[in-house]
């Protein structure tokens, strides 16, 4: 099969023939139709984070395809089912987090396209106990971005602890952010979008944001967001630049919550006095559980959210990563694995 392989953190991915893997216990072999390209794949391929993936590896954690073979002890999926992979490839099922609905925090979890090979390949293995089940009748290319971008922003929005009618700031309107706008609107929130590119703000308005603020062209983006909303009740930061993080904290009204989702390899200063006196909450949010995934896919299957995306062949993966690096992607790029 063809796969896009990361061999070093400084070179392009190599598109090359590799053996089709064999499913072990609990695993299913999936013929991949489409996979989204997440900015996390770029961080992985560049070795951006403190824990780097072992080389060589195959990125990709928004893969959609059909089960073609199952290993021993597989009961949840069967040959012919449409399934996906996800960042949460598997978890231990036994620890305090797995036992309390926080499998996303399992210290023994495995991650697709990072610690196990991902979906930038014509076939992939998934753990049948954890893989997303793609609802029948949906466009498989459009379903792909839901498997990471969709579930992550849906869960992240839940963790802002906002209510219908509340203002939510979506900072960064890329693959994650353009879906965040849609989930927030579907959940009854009012959305103000922040980005550094007018085309991204247009996309946010198209998907239901009430107002957009360009952080690169206005003098004081925080004051602008506060003026427009009276201060937001919640904020979701998906931006890939550290400067967006203290801005989102600054845009909160008293008692507000910011959910940090973007993962630029940077730090930001948190003003102790304002955080304490205004009772602010700053928390991280990482993807979503299997239950969150089912809910996120259900919003999509019912037509409440729908990614903006462009389909490209697997052979274009390095160009796509370059486009992501330079902020040139509108919504998501989805790779077609079978027409390369
Ligand atoms: P993307 O490249 O599609 O989108 C990033 C957006 O941020 C772009 O629209 C860009 O214009 C915008 N941006 C850049 N600088 C900005 C600034 N200063 N202010 C506001 N916006 C700015 O990336 P993506 O695929 O949406 O991923 C976004 C981030 O989320 C990445 O760091 C990725 O690793 C991370 N991520 C986290 C999780 C999680 O579970 N926490 C899951 C998936 C992705
Ligand atoms: Zn992702
Ligand atoms: Zn666990």
Detailed description of the structure:
The chain has 340 residues and is of the alpha/beta class. The protein folds into 2 domains: 2-146 and 288-336, Medium-chain alcohol dehydrogenases, catalytic domain (Quinone Oxidoreductase, Chain A, domain 1); 151-284, NAD(P)-binding Rossmann-like Domain (Rossmann fold). The protein has 10 helices and 16 strands. The strands form 4 sheets. Strands 3, 4, 5, 8, 15 and 16 form a 6-stranded mixed β-sheet that branches. The protein has a 6-stranded parallel β-sheet with strand order 11-10-9-12-13-14, sandwiched between helices. Helix 3 (149-158) crosses helix 9 and helix 6 packs parallel to helix 7 (244-251). The chain is globular. The structure holds nicotinamide-adenine-dinucleotide and zinc ion (2 copies). One zinc ion (ZN) binds at residues 38, 40, 61, 87, 148.
Summarize the structure.
26% of the residues lie in helices and 24% in strands. It has ten helices and 16 strands.
Using the 3D structure, state the CATH architecture of the largest domain: Alpha-Beta Complex
Task: Show unreliable segments.
Answer: none
CATH superfamily of the largest domain: Medium-chain alcohol dehydrogenases, catalytic domain
**What order do the helices and strands follow?**
EEEHEEEEEHHEHEHEHEHEHEHEHE
Can you tell me the CATH topology of the largest domain? Quinone Oxidoreductase, Chain A, domain 1
**Multimeric organization:** single chain
User: In whole angstroms, how far apart are the ends?
Assistant: 11 Å
Q: What count of domains describes the coordinates? A: 2
Task: Kindly report the average pLDDT value.
Answer: 98
Total number of beta strands? 16
CATH class of the largest domain: Alpha Beta
How is the biggest beta sheet arranged? Answer: 6 strands, mixed
The helix content is: 25-40%
